[in-house]
Amino acid sequence: MLRQSGDSGALSPGAASALASLARSGPLRLGDLAAVERVSAPTMSRIVTGLERAGYLERAADPGDGRAQLLTATPTGHNLVNGLTSARIQRFAAAMERLDREQRDALTTALNVLVDELGR
Predict the structure, then answer these.
(1) Phi–psi pair at 80, nearest 5 degrees
(2) Which residues contact 17 (CB under 8 A, 6 or more apart)?
(3) Looking at residue 4, what DSSP letter applies?
(4) Which residues have a Cβ under 8 Å from the Cβ of 56 and sit 6 or more positions away?
(5) Which of 78, 77, 58 is closest to 69 using CA atoms?
(6) What is the 3-class SS of 35-76, one letter each residue?
(7) Between vectors from CA 11 to CA 76 and to CA 31, what angle results, nearest 5°?
(8) Predicted confidence pLDDT, tens digits, the chain (120 residues)
(9) Would you say 57 and 80 are in contact if contact means Cβ atoms under 8 Å apart?
């Protein structure tokens, strides 16, 4: 539900996620971005082409390997990701504020138990 918060424009959830990964992680090769996003290289290639056409990312030669390219979010791409993140944080905070104290305490307790269980 939070992924749907904010105006991602014409970006698919996969494209928004890939762009967010680039904005957070910095330059990545296409194969590395595909691995992070858990999609195939051909799927990521289509996503990257769309993001590049929209001006949200750019390609540059990899200084360590001239045959490879590094993908980087553009300032426009960073701004889009920051706006989406901000909208999601605001939506989450507003939902939390609508809970009464007892509900927030129960949620906090339940989440701490869940985190402990996942850590085992």
Answers:
(1) -65, -45
(2) 37
(3) G
(4) 19, 73, 74, 76, 77, 80
(5) 58
(6) HHHCCCHHHHHHHHHHHHHCCCEEEEEECCEEEEEEEEECHH
(7) 80
(8) 665 555 555 688 889 899 999 999 989 999 999 999 999 999 999 999 999 999 999 999 989 888 889 999 999 999 888 887 777 788 888 888 999 999 999 999 999 999 999 988
(9) no
Which tokens go with 99? 């809970």
Q: What letters, b where the CB count within 10 A reaches 16 and e where it falls short, cover 10-38?
A: ebeeebbbbbbbbbeeebbbbebbbebbe
Helices (H) and strands (E) in the chain, counts: 5, 2
Which tokens go with 78?
A: 């960073």
**Global pTM?**
0.70
